[in-house]
Amino acid sequence: MKQPIQKNKHLKIMILADQKSKSLYDYYEPEKMKEIDLIISCGDLDPNYLIFFATLCHAPVLYVKGNHDARYAEKPPEGCICIEDDIFVYQGVRILGLGGSMEYIPGAPNQYTELKMRKRIWKMGWKIWKHKGFDILVTHAPAYQVNDLEDLPHRGFAVFRKLLEKYQPKFFFHGHVHANYSRNFKREDKFGNTTVVNAYEYYVVEYPLEKEKIEEKELDQSDPDNETEEISEENENSLKKLNNNYCPYENCYTNNINSNIVKNYNIPNFFVSKHLFSRNNLGYLLGNGTVGVCFDDSSRIVM
Is the pTM of this model over 0.85? Predict the structure, then answer.
């Protein structure tokens, strides 16, 4: 997608979630959207609603899925860009997307336990490292104890707090908690250096372009593995028995790897420069730059 050169000092971002806006939809006027540069949906919106904006507005429409967006599987919002489990860069602004809510109906689509959400983030480790972090976190659910609610369906994810603490993005956009759910509803809040915004119905945020420059942060080469280390902290021993093989090293990061483990875990025949274990899974970095994960059922994914 060609991105127009932004001459303004700010990127005007309209965020949407959970509730259609009569002002924008039933009483649409082009003038209301004229200065909007980017539209981001934080979930739980009819796909036709997003198609409406993608059709009539010049701004790109990005989205993540909410817990009520199972219909997107059969009818995704055409003309819009799904940023689930991805980092989308627009005008130099790095936008990370993670939809869904806390799992309250076992097996329901777009619902995740805390552990499942951590695994999603761990699988994104390479993308986060490649982009040297991110500037905006877009989710459906809030972070734990950051304007969430106490009931399970509307409880936030603790791992989102860790993302905010570690990468300190400028903004965190979420939905899921409606304005009429609580008298303590907050449109904006702060978490460390991050401005947290609830996108319920719609809200316009100005992202500074000239003052906010992406810093070239010194990131350790092992950074993609940090989220995995956080997952393994839940176990007393981070090095679990894998197919009757134990990691033979005191430190999971190494320039060598046992040939039996390579065979059992179906790793390609390239030089493995780094590897680590998380529960029954083996992550590796090859000498040619390929990153992959091998699972204990001998299947693997390559990124």
Answer: no
